[in-house]
Amino acid sequence: MLISRWVLRLIIANVVVFVLTVYRSQFANFLAFVPLEFLHRPWTLATYMFVHDTTGISHILFNMLALFFFGPRLEMELGSKHFLGLYFTSGLIGALLHLVFNPLSPIVGASGAVYGVMLGYAMFWPRDRVYIWGVLPVEVRIMVLIMTALSLFGGFGAFSDGIAHFAHLGGFLGGFLYVKLLQKRSRIQQVQSKIVEPIVHAGNIQKWRSIPRGTLHEVNREEYDRIIAKLDRHGVASLTESEKAFLERFSH
User: Fold this and answer.
1) SS3 of 33, please?
2) Domain count of the chain?
3) Same domain, 163 and 219
4) Are 53 and 158 found together in one domain?
5) Is 158 found in the same domain as 215?
6) Are residues 243 and 145 in the same domain?
7) Distances (CA, A) of 115 to 72, 134, 165
8) In terms of domains, do 176 and 64 share one?
9) pTM to 2 decimals?
10) Which of the pair, 210 or 134, is modelled with greater confidence?
11) Is 111 an active-site residue?
12) Is residue 227 part of a domain?
């Protein structure tokens, strides 16, 4: 599996911070998101995503594996700019949702951002299969539904396990909203292109027909007549780029 540019950079950044915090625990305290203090420490809305529990490697291992498996294809689909936008939006909304529902508990970890990546992946390729524990095949959409249900049960007190479930739910919400916003903007652009392109073509056609034919060299005049005849028969869509360039050159 090829790893994309920003997925690789995010994994490296998380691993570097993890190593630093293993030896400098005060560094983790400086970067962690503490809900009741975030107005005085606004940077922690972003930095908490790079800090993980140092009592073991399961926390960072799960997040980085999920980012490695789901991130590259999503980054290639969205482009690096929007992939990062989705990643950090998911992490930010994860922190804010945790602030609303669990304001007394500090949080660390990339889980909110990574959950947003998983949700984004599920929206584009819902029927792709992943293998839980390497043996149990589950469609991505089903996996996300199961993880959402677990986060809801855990967040609202069905069980207590010290996990920031609302940050996970916020990550899912952030990923969903970001992809929907991109899709809505894409649809608007498609509608605009359908409206604008015929207007542009109409203006071009008028300009091309206004070319003073009698001033053209005989060879160019024959080419001009051929292209205009083609335009009349089949419309502007039938013209090649070189034919349009020919008309543009003499229309000036």
Assistant:
1) strand
2) 2
3) no
4) yes
5) no
6) no
7) 14, 20, 11
8) yes
9) 0.75
10) 210
11) yes
12) yes
Given the residues 168, 242, 251, 252, select the one marked as catalytic: 168
Q: What is the mean pLDDT of residues 234-252?
A: 80
pLDDT digits (tens, 9 = 90+) for 88-103: 999 999 999 999 999 9
The answer to whether residue 158 scores a pLDDT higher than 70 is: no
196 pLDDT tier (thresholds 50, 70, 90) = very low
Exactly one of 52, 59, 90, 111 is catalytic; name it: 111
Q: Which of 76-80, 82-86, 112-116, 200-204 has the lowest mean pLDDT?
A: 200-204
13 and 120 inside one domain: yes
Active site residue 168: yes
pLDDT in tens, 12-45: 999 999 999 999 888 999 999 999 998 999 999 9
Q: Identify whether residues 85 and 145 lie together within a single domain.
A: yes
Name the β-bridge partners of 129: 139
Listed as own residue / partner, the contacts of 50-54 with beta carbons closer than 8 Å and 24 or more positions apart are 50/13, 50/14, 50/17, 50/110, 51/17, 51/18, 51/21, 51/108, 51/109, 52/14, 52/17, 52/18, 52/21, 52/108, 52/109, 52/110, 53/108, 53/109, 54/18, 54/21, 54/22, 54/25, 54/28
Asked whether residue 203 is domain-assigned, the answer is no
Q: What is the CATH classification number for the domain harbouring 97?
A: 1.20.1540.10
Residue 177 and residue 97 in contact, taking contact as beta carbons nearer than 8 Å: no
User: Contact 50/66 with Cβ under 8 angstroms?
Assistant: no
Residue 213 is predicted with a pLDDT of 82
* 164 part of a folded domain: yes
Domain carrying residue 153: 5-187
User: Where is 50: in which H helix or E strand?
Assistant: none
157 and 240 part of one domain: no
Query: Which residues make Cβ contacts (< 8 Å) with residue 222, sequence separation at least 6?
Result: none
88: tokens are: 């950090």
